[in-house]
Design brief:
This is Ubiquinone biosynthesis regulatory protein kinase UbiB. The chain crosses the membrane at residues 498-518. This protein is an alpha+beta fold. It folds into five domains: 1-94, no CATH class; 95-222 and 231-245, no CATH class; 246-441, no CATH class; 446-473, no CATH class; 475-512. It has helices at 2-5, 7-19, 22-28, 33-43, 52-63, 65-75, 83-89, 101-112, 116-119, 156-177, 181-184, 186-200, 203-216, 254-259, 264-282, 319-333, 337-347, 356-371, 380-392, 400-419, 425-440, 443-460, 464-473, 478-520; strands spanning 122-123, 129-130, 134-140, 146-152, 226-227, 240-244, 249-250, 284-286, 294-296, 306-308, 314-316. α5 (52-63) packs antiparallel against α6 (65-75) and α5 (52-63) packs parallel to α7 (83-89).
Length: 521
């Protein structure tokens, strides 16, 4: 029934696929003689001169904002996609015409209980930015504070669910028809996209991400690095997110920043430092750090400080993940490939029976070419991506949080090199990682961990004598368990004996029946 209602949309998708020759991409990937001939026949009369990645990008842009979002998420899965397609998908633009201001104001009134003209001292009808999920209006609170109000696009949930249903169907077809379909994990990719998209539809979640990041960067020693807007919680709901208005220049406007007196090389280094603080100190990082979401303050009191915007996608890392990544990076810096292989095996991310020396050789072949170049030419993000691709051959399951980390690292690295082409990311990162590792081992780290656990131990230690007494006074259940196991063993033996006897009787009956049947002939 759902498919019948979605039939017009499906016809439109098929038309766009044919227009941009995506059918030829699918058929040529099947690697069968008849499919190759069929692809040539279907191509007749269609000038498909553009590269396959460009055709895919244009098709997704024509199919609408949900497919654009899907392509953006898909571009992060470089462990699954060919490089030319992944590179082209990163160019997808999430820009759509704004929806009517009357709808935005109606959404605000329904969510917050009052008309925007009552809630705010002033509210700008014309949006300042519009994307597939939401658009932003500037406003002023009654106490004079300037804010930005992000409003969810009406009717998005219904549209998203319809397109997701079609994507699941297409993913199942890809998995069944294309030889590499299972390796590409299309259904898992769609499920991952489903999660990201529904998270972005909850602006309360985005507001909480913003609040956490702001709290992390108001700690001593960090306040001069990154500005995160304050959340106005009284003006937030699931479809509305109100935050402090930020002023600055997009980080990509390098000449404008230079004219205002910003130290561009220092800005590039600070971007790398902010990334490593988020990843290794906090284990909570902004995972959508493309130039459109990062501004730089041009106000005299905060000149040159980064400004973070759009907190719909964030990543988080466990203590295990952080330790693993830090040790891997340091092993790379030292070109200790045996240690990298050992870390992968010990972490359980590759099977325990993987031959360490074989895995080490594969990692060396992956990484050694980079070390023959000047350090300033080495891409740490590319090294990490190649490592994931190499590990896949050894049946490594890439973790979602590491995929987000890889995407963010590539964004940060590209941003840093755009600001300062001579930026040496390895040289900037290595001292930070070494200091971080030193802080996590040794006497200071031990004392800090003991202090962290002291509150829990303060509650547990007084109860230990009582718990020990209860355990000693409790009746020993071992003899009972032993008796029950012996009874089960005897029952199993009896059942086995009965089954053997039954099998023998059945065999005799079959033989007798066969003899009688043959004798009748």
């Amino acid at each position: 029934m759902k498919l019948i209602f979605a039939l017009p949309r499906l016809v439109h998708i098929l038309f766009v696929m044919l227009r941009y020759g995506l059918d030829e991409l699918v058929l040529s990937s099947l690697h069968r003689p008849f499919t190759t001939r069929l692809a040539r026949i279907l191509r007749f009369g269609r000038p498909l001169k553009a590269p396959r990645g460009e055709r895919l990008r244009l098709a997704l842009e024509q199919l609408g904002p949900i497919f654009v979002k899907f392509g953006q998420v898909l571009s992060t899965r470089r462990d699954l996609l060919p490089a030319d397609i992944a590179d082209e998908l990163t160019r997808l633009q999430d820009r759509v015409p704004p929806f009517p201001s009357a709808q935005a104001m109606a959404t605000i009134e329904a969510a917050l209980g009052n008309h925007p003209d009552v809630l705010f001292a002033s509210f700008e009808r014309e949006p300042v930015a519009s994307a597939s999920i939401a658009q932003v209006h500037f406003a002023v609170l009654h106490d004079g504070r300037e804010v930005a109000v992000k409003v969810l696009r009406p009717g998005m949930l219904k549209v998203i669910d319809q397109d997701l249903e079609l994507m699941r169907m297409l993913a199942s077809m890809v998995e069944r028809l294309i030889p590499d379909g299972r390796r590409l994990k299309p259904r898992e990719v769609v499920a991952e996209f489903d999660k990201h998209l529904h998270d972005e539809l909850d602006l309360i979640r985005e507001a909480s991400n913003c609040s956490q990041l702001r709290r992390n960067f108001t700690r001593p020693g960090r306040r001069d690095l990154l500005i995160v807007p304050e959340v106005m919680w009284d003006y937030c709901a699931r479809p509305v997110f109100t935050m402090e208005r930020m002023r600055g220049a997009p980080v990509s406007h390098v000449e404008r920043l230079r004219e205002t007196g910003v130290d561009i090389p220092a800005l590039a280094r600070h971007g790398v430092e902010i990334f490593f603080i988020q990843v290794f100190s906090d284990g909570f990082f902004h995972a959508d750090m493309h130039p459109g979401n990062i501004y730089v303050s041009d106000a005299p009191e905060t000149l040159g400080q980064y400004i973070a915007l759009d907190f719909g996608i964030v990543g988080s890392l466990s203590e295990f993940d952080k330790n693993y990544l830090a040790q891997n990076f340091l092993a790379f810096f030292r070109r200790d490939y045996r240690q990298v292989a050992r870390l992968h095996i010990e972490s359980g991310w590759v099977p325990a029976d993987t031959r360490e020396e074989e895995f080490e050789g594969a990692i060396r072949a992956c990484c050694e070419p980079y070390f023959d170049r000047p350090l300033s030419d080495i891409s740490l993000g590319q090294v990490l991506m190649r490592l994931f691709q190499t590990s896949r051959r050894f049946h490594m399951e890439v973790q979602p949080q590491l995929v987000l980390l890889q995407k963010t690292l590539l964004n940060v690295e590209g941003l840093g090199r755009q600001l300062d082409p001579d930026l040496d990311l390895w040289k900037t990162a290595k001292p930070y990682l070494e200091n971080w590792m030193q802080e996590r081992v040794g006497v200071k780290a031990l004392l800090r961990n003991l202090q962290r656990e002291s509150e829990q131990w303060a509650q547990t230690l007084p109860a230990l004598p009582r718990l020990v007494y209860q355990r000693l006074a409790h009746e020993d259940t071992l003899p009972t368990v032993t008796q029950e196991l012996a009874a089960l063993r005897d029952a199993h033996r009896r059942m086995t004996r009965y089954l053997g006897m039954l099998t023998g009787v059945l065999a005799v009956l079959v033989a007798l029946i066969g003899w009688l049947v043959l004798g009748s002939f």
